[in-house]
């Protein structure tokens, strides 16, 4: 009985020691785990550019294959450019024609301006001159009619003189034969009769000339009035010259607009021709080549996927319970499974604005009454420190284990 209590105290001692060891181990684990957070729900992300065609046609050149590295502006494929070159040639011809029409329309504006001013001045001067000509011609008609009246009066006067002289000759002839009057007196009467006849004939000639002058003057009046009518017509046309000038200016503006339109069509045609060359927008690896030589493609059809080789980062989906002390700018270490656990240093760039479930196609709906609390995960972007030699081996989609040092 004396050894019973000692035997009982032995197992209790060992149990207490085991509990102490477990507690110390838990404390050590917690102490070692404090100040950093890690997760295996993470992968490498990168720039994947979907290259599509903006024009349609048949593939006539193909210069790349799957997984090939290409540099920026490398020609990857070419669409048959002949149809697009034809459009460019036609657009160039239309632009040249529009420019020629515009040049002609523009040059016509100053000519119309000068013509408008000169036509108005010329028409005004022509009207004044024509009206003056009408007045002169009318005065000439009046003068010719006055001359006719005077000539007719002289004819009548001459006829009276001829009659009197003839009577004097007939009265003196028998007396002269009987020598009752001097021969000289008879001869004077005969001469007077001859002079009277000559004066009458001259007066009749003056009448004929006066009548002709009247006819000429009246014709001049007609011509002068016609000239005045033409001058008034020119003036009427000249008064519409400002409207014609505006028409010329409008034509010049329309021609200039057609030049801009033709230039825009040509620019679009050249752009479409340039788009027949499918070039790499940046350095990267060709992935998922979706075309073959001779294939007919349509605008918007995907042709290649170009994966950036160096512009990569890590997206780690940490539990919401791990984010209490996590901040942008904290240091991180990333272990890559595909590289036998090789480690890369990085920095927390940003923390996602929402949980991953909120960006899923069908977000979880917990308002059904059967709520089960699930720990959510939040995406955290980690960027790698520059200068590390990745050898182009960090590919988007690779699994990694990041550790963020929060303290």
**CATH C-level name of the largest domain:** Mainly Beta
Count of helical stretches: 4
How far apart, in Å, are the first and last alpha carbons?
59 Å
Q: How much is the radius of gyration in Å?
A: 61 Å
What is the 3D form?
Answer: rod-shaped
CATH superfamily annotation of the largest domain: RNA polymerase II/Efflux pump adaptor protein, barrel-sandwich hybrid domain
Secondary structure class reads alpha+beta
Report the sheet-strand fraction: 15-25%
CATH topology of the largest domain: OB fold (Dihydrolipoamide Acetyltransferase, E2P)
Q: Could you write a compact summary of the structure shown?
A:
This protein is an alpha+beta fold. Helices cover 53% and strands 21% of the residues. It folds into two domains: 37-80 and 281-405, OB fold (Dihydrolipoamide Acetyltransferase, E2P), CATH 2.40.50; 87-254, Helix Hairpins, CATH 1.10.287.
